[in-house]
Design brief:
The protein is 31% helix and 26% strand. By secondary structure, the protein is of the alpha/beta class. Bound molecules: adenosine-5'-triphosphate. Adenosine-5'-triphosphate binds next to helix 1.
Amino acid sequence: MILRVKGVEFSYENKKKILSDVNFELDKGSFLTILGPNGAGKSTLLNCITNLLKPTRGELWLKDQLMCGMDLKQVAKTIAYVPQVHIPTYEFTSLDFVVMGRSPHLGMFQKPTKADYDIAKAALVQLDSMELAEKPYTKLSGGERQLVTIARAIAQEAELIVFDEPTAYLDYGNQIRILKLIKTLTQRGYSVIMTTHSPDHAFLLGGKIGILDYHGGLQIGAAEEVLQEEVLARIYGTDVRVIYVKELGRSVCAASLAGFL
Ligand SMILES: Nc1ncnc2c1ncn2[C@@H]1O[C@H](COP(=O)(O)OP(=O)(O)OP(=O)(O)O)[C@@H](O)[C@H]1O
């Protein structure tokens, strides 16, 4: 077990409960996709998991340690966060950006060493992206930026990588490339949590699915078990068909515009 979320509740200042009694465990090398409508609380849950927000109730355990007693640097040695959009102000090269993943392993005023740069380069090589090393990070395309951000997570040498909508803003080909890469990461032993707005991505990746509803509850199960037509219709407020495609060996989601407007 790498992460245990136990009875977690969260409210912002306005007191509306965004997360309510959320419970799940994540094993090493396993995968959880979190779905839910806009504003349900997916990013809030990821922020609690990465210790950026403190739950109002409940406990988060990282391996066998309670997370509330850990600082961000300690947590970052185990969990890497790949946010949706990251636009730095300075013109770092991609390699300098990837090497920032080494910060949790450096002392307060310590600069990255040659060994840290070697780890950052190896992360870019792992993702077949070494040609991006000298490109300014601010000049990368959306897909390239996502690759470099994943390389930073790998350079961090974390065991759990948390992705907030990793396919947002990417074209169809890059969406599938990033999903393949995420699947490969789990095959290499990383644990992964990601959010998505596409139930089809959940079918494509397999693993466990969590559906967050507007009452803050997280329903967890296997894709085929959780992603039922009635559930999707309730969550997204629109008709969705779940169809098994023999050639693909999996179900797909298809929406219809009939009766819309
Ligand atoms: N800092 C904040 N202070 C107060 N309320 C907030 C804050 N951040 C988010 N919220 C509210 O909490 C709720 C959950 O937001 P969150 O961003 O976690 O949802 P989400 O499921 O990630 O949404 P989306 O799919 O649209 O990205 C929303 O109603 C949002 O307005």
